[in-house]
Structures are given as structure tokens and as C-alpha cells.
Amino acid sequence: MEAYTGFATVYDRYMDNIPYDDWAHNIKVLFEKYNMPMEIVCDLGCGTGQMTRRLKEMGYDMIGIDVSYDMLMEAMSQEDSDGILYLCQDMRSFELYGTVGAVISLCDSMNYLADTDELLQVCKLANNYLDPKGLFIFDMKTDSYYKKLGTGTIAENREEGSFIWENEYNPDTRDNYYYLTIYEENEEGTFDRFEEEHMQHAFTVDEVKAAIKESGLELLQVLDVSTMEAPTEDSDRLYFIAREVTK
After folding, report:
1. Predicted confidence (pLDDT) per residue in 96-106, tens digit
2. Domain residue limits at 154
3. Mean pLDDT lowest for which of 183-192, 196-205, 225-234?
4. Is residue 224 scored above 50 in pLDDT?
5. What CATH number has the domain bearing residue 179?
6. Which of 81, 129, 121, 84 is nearest to 103 (CA)?
7. How high is the pLDDT of residue 32?
């Protein structure tokens, strides 16, 4: 089943617990820490453009890339999307017209990569399209996070509909499968049903470090997203900050 098709129209309504404002602030802090000027930023796996628009409001020129046409249509329908270039491309093979000051990939988009080969490919592409000393910043959910999530079902009833999340995590392969079902009330008073199947992979820190190094990037820092400090074994989500060093 193709991910984020019909579900795109209701995605933001049911994912309203994501701290986009905090994450956008974190990225700005990292940009300033590593002296990234107000240049073009490419947002890989931008989805409905929540982070893309926030960074645009901070003064950056934004490009948003996502493999889901439906998610991009939602992004472009937002009132504050003017001036953002959205491209429907796969992050594993994305192309830009020139180089950019930074490439970012947030909201665990990089966890959708199936293995270290795909991870390396994205790192190489990011490196290729970065300006000299440009930054590649991405987040990832950890094995610890998925183990806590485990195997089970989360259900939530709301006034406009219902949300069911069935989760399965295999700690041996570090693959996480989740099945989403949403019942959304329509104008006729009946309910539309949306179904999605997703797979994410938990990479180890060493695997990510190796991919960054092999791609030609320089790893600057690994941080816990929630604390902006060094990660621990219990960290749920990590930032990896890398820099272009070969141009």
C-alpha cells in the first residue's frame, strides 16, 4: 500500500501532538551555532510542509521534497506556502538545480530508509548538493524508542472521527511496522475510511556515523532532540549534524 495517499488530507489533524515549533527552533539554533547564513534550505521528506513553512517564516529560502504527491498538495494548499518550491521526488534519488546552504530531514523521515545502503545514498546526495561548508541535519527515532512502543494498539476517538494505530516492532531486524486506520466524518454525515501501512527502520549510531563518513561528510555532533545534549541509551530521537568539507 502506498504511504500517505488519502491519509494526507487528515494527517495534520491527527498528528497535532508533534512539537513542530520546538523542532524548528532547534534547527535555527544549530544553524546559528555552525554559522549557516540565511541561504537556501532543502527539506527532505517535508510531508505537509509543517517544518518547511516554519523555517521560511524564520527567513530561510525553502525547497520541500517529498515522495507523496498528496502530501505535497496539502503543503501547497496552505496560505503560508507562497515562495516555497515543492518537488515530488524520492529522497533516495532527489535532484536539485544547484547547491544549497543546508539539507535537513526531520520528523523521522530518514527512518523510512530500509538499510544502510539507502542511508549512504541519501548522505551522498546531500553532500553533493551542499554549498562548501554546508550542513546536513537530520533526526532519527532510536531502537530504544521503538522498543518502548513495542507491539500493541493505540486508539483514539475524537469528535470528527476515530484513529487506530497498530504497531509491531522486531528488535532483531530493528524494523517497525505500523498500520493506521482513520474514520473521518464527511459532509454527508457518514464516515470515510483511510488506511495506511508503514515501515521504519532503527539505525544504530555507529551505522549512521559510518554512512556519514563514507559519504564524505564530516560529523559534527549527535544530540538528543528533547534535551539538545549528548544522547543516552534511553534517548528516543537523535539529531545528526554533519558538514560538507570537500568542495
Report:
1. 999 999 999 99
2. 144-201
3. 183-192
4. yes
5. 2.20.25.110
6. 129
7. 96
Residue with the three cell numbers 530493528: 174
pTM higher than 0.90, yes or no?
yes
Average of pLDDT values for 193-216? 95
Q: How far is CA 140 from the centre of its chain?
A: 8
Task: Clarify whether residues 192 and 225 are in a common domain.
Answer: no
> 180 Cβ partners below 8 Å, 6+ apart?
7, 163, 164, 165, 166, 194, 195, 196, 197, 198
DSSP states of 57-117: HTT-EEEEEES-HHHHHHHHTSGGGTT-EEEE--GGG---SS-EEEEEE-TTGGGG--SHH
H or E stretch including 27?
Answer: helix 20-33
**Number of domains within the chain:** 2
* 106 & 156 share domain: no
Q: Are residues 171 and 239 in the same domain?
A: no
Please state the rounded mean pLDDT for residues 44-54: 95
CATH code where residue 68 lies: 3.40.50.150
Do residues 59 and 103 both lie within one domain?
yes
Q: 214 and 183 in one domain?
A: no
Asked if residue 238 and residue 225 are part of one domain, the reply reads yes
